[in-house]
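FYI - complex with shikimate-3-phosphate, inputs then prediction.
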Amino acid sequence: MSGSDQASQDWIASTGEPIRGEIRVPGDKSVSHRAIMLGALADGVSEIDGFLEGEDTRATAAAFAAMGVRIEATGDGRRTVHGVGLHGLEAPAQAIDCGNAGTGMRLLAGLLAGQAFDSKLVGDASLSRRPMRRVTEPLARMGARIDTADGGVPPLRIHGNSALQGIEFNTPIASAQVKSAVLLAGLYARGTTEVREPHPTRDYTERMLSAMGWPIEFSPGFARLQGGGQLKPVRINVPADISSAAFFIVAATVVPGSDLLLRGVGLNPRRTGLLDALRAMGADISVLEPREEGGEPVGDLRIRSAALHGIEVPVELVPDMIDEFPALFVAAAAADGVTRVRGAAELRVKESDRIALMSTGLRSLGIRVEETPDGADIHGGLLQGGEIDSGGDHRIAMSFVVAAQLAKGPVRISDCANVATSFPGFMELATSAGLNVAPAGD
Ligand code: S3P
């Protein structure tokens, strides 16, 4: 059952303590999805450590189990994936439920387009509203046959036995999901598949393919591979997810007296836009012990509270912090002056319309926000208590928990069950670090 089908869960958050201590947030969602997918297609046994035990990534693991892949949970965050080889998947008996996960559905669409069997992908209420033509159109150019519902939304019906052909694809959208769907179909295609992006996006698919011995050329904004090969099994250490760390980074920055250490955070340069934006606003963030783990840059982040001022967020940072805007809006509300966000229209088609929900929510807490089609102007100010609709979006819910730490009264946040899609144990970890949040009593 996916989060949004569960009974709605409301939370109450209010001013807590300074944010202090040493914590590690759960594993990276993007890496965890890909580790299961590529591990399943490898010839042999892959080991994953630090796997995100969230609903989104577990849905991906369940999808491969339903296609005959043995995936053993050998401990918290540990999976042993008995890969079946590129052509070893079995037809699933039922529709595959991707839950809330856009990454799961879009990457699976590419991967399943190359199989010998038919399949159907479904999702929860939020995922069922999200645009899928961005993947089905390039995949159709490769020869895939995928039907969507009216309006280009899920469910996706994928017809097997399609002879795929490599393409040169200049994607109009800076999206790692689109790029990855095409590259995964490219594994099964004749000839060369090439993707060029308008702005570079996260390159985990490319890095993992390369680590698994698949010849691939890639550089920021570009990837090229040939179809027909083999994947070698690997050991994957999943770093802590910077998108989950983001809520603590902002909380420790805006709550006076804070001094927090976040351990083992993934610092892939395509993910660190929030750090750049916050530093430009005056944040005090240092990277301790920068290192490489499993081919990924990782470091411990020390965050001390600092006074922020508004900035114009550089448009080129947008893809590097695409999941961090809800948290950034909260930092902007706490900053002196105006923070201007532009070039971020993609936020309107995430798990919710994040520009609309963050703007409405902050306004109801007394902050002046002017929305534009691709961003907002957020005027820093004093936050009051109030009621927030999270729209069932995990990142909106967690962002308002952070905002509430500065509010003059309690903040009630509706529909928080989906926090478990990306951040199981958020409430406990947040409370241990000094934030004040609890389930709402009715
Ligand atoms: C992801 C890519 C991003 C991001 C999502 C995860 C991925 O989406 O928002 O949370 O794992 O490839 P887009 O590629 O659509 O921007």
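Confidence is low (pLDDT under 50) at residues 1-6. The longest strand covers residues 284-293.
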